[in-house]
Amino acid sequence: MQIPPRVLTVAGSDSGGGAGIQADLKTMLALGVHGMSVLTAVTAQNSRGVQGAWELPVEAVTAQYRSVVDDIGVQAVKTGMLSSAALVSTVAGLLAGTPVPVVVDPVGVSKHGDPLLAASALDSVRGELLPVATVATPNLDEVAQLTGIEVRDESGMRRAADAVLGFGPRWALIKGGHLEGDAVDLLTDGTAEHWLRAPRLDNRHTHGTGCTLASAVASGLAKGLSVPDAVREAKEYVTGAIAAGFALGSGIGPVDHGW
Ligand code: PLP
């Protein structure tokens, strides 16, 4: 039997199963890679929002990472909710010098506006985590948090990408889904520029979109795809998952991985 590529997510748990570690592992299963997880935080969460969040000790995060990497090995890593400056620093330290691609989803707040990252952690994200990223995947709220740039149009996305690249990731994927019109993303390494467009889908059940996209990119990279190809395939995957998103609970339901 052929051994599948192995992908590690370093992220928080969503008890409702729509985002976080749960979305990551579902994406990886759907894309044919072996998913593994380093849990950073536990959230009590459902379709209405985040009711509580508890972060794991730095030692627990480090130990999970060492267990996976020292024995099983990884072909790509994805980071999501990291909660605090201490965890951002710890994870950045673990990933510094890793030979495999690292996808950083700089998770800031949930769709409901619940904070998933302390404001005091932003300096560590900019100064320690983004420099170890192969691809950083901020949405426009995260761009504003990290760079102070309020993006309103595609030229703003270009300026945002330059500012994000200034923190050191090899590629920036600026997700313009929060703008009006088509869902347009910009992928650039400062030289090549790839605009990815998908029609806006009329479905409010989009919980887990960002986690899913970043995990799909990491899965593609683990399979050996180039960054532009991995991002293109990931965008197709997340577009299908949003189209199939369904109502659960009384609020915003999850994207679907079974389409
Ligand atoms: N909960 C956890 C644990 C997450 O990691 C994330 C996003 O990365 C979210 C919630 C937010 O998901 P969404 O913005 O799709 O609601």
From TrEMBL:
Annotated CDD domains: HMPP_kinase (cd01169)
InterPro entries: HMP/HMP-P_kinase_dom (IPR004399), PM/HMP-P_kinase-1 (IPR013749), Ribokinase-like (IPR029056)
Location of the Pyridoxamine kinase/Phosphomethylpyrimidine kinase domain: 14-256
EC number: 2.7.1.49, 2.7.4.7
Reactions accelerated catalytically: 4-amino-5-hydroxymethyl-2-methylpyrimidine + ATP = 4-amino-2-methyl-5-(phosphooxymethyl)pyrimidine + ADP + H(+); 4-amino-2-methyl-5-(phosphooxymethyl)pyrimidine + ATP = 4-amino-2-methyl-5-(diphosphooxymethyl)pyrimidine + ADP
An annotated Gene Ontology molecular function: phosphomethylpyrimidine kinase activity
Pathway as given in its UniProt record: Cofactor biosynthesis; thiamine diphosphate biosynthesis; 4-amino-2-methyl-5-diphosphomethylpyrimidine from 5-amino-1-(5-phospho-D-ribosyl)imidazole: step 3/3
Keywords on record: Kinase, Thiamine biosynthesis, Transferase
UniProt function note: Catalyzes the phosphorylation of hydroxymethylpyrimidine phosphate (HMP-P) to HMP-PP, and of HMP to HMP-P.
UniProt protein name: Bifunctional hydroxymethylpyrimidine kinase/phosphomethylpyrimidine kinase
Naturally occurring in which organism (per UniProt): Streptomyces zhihengii
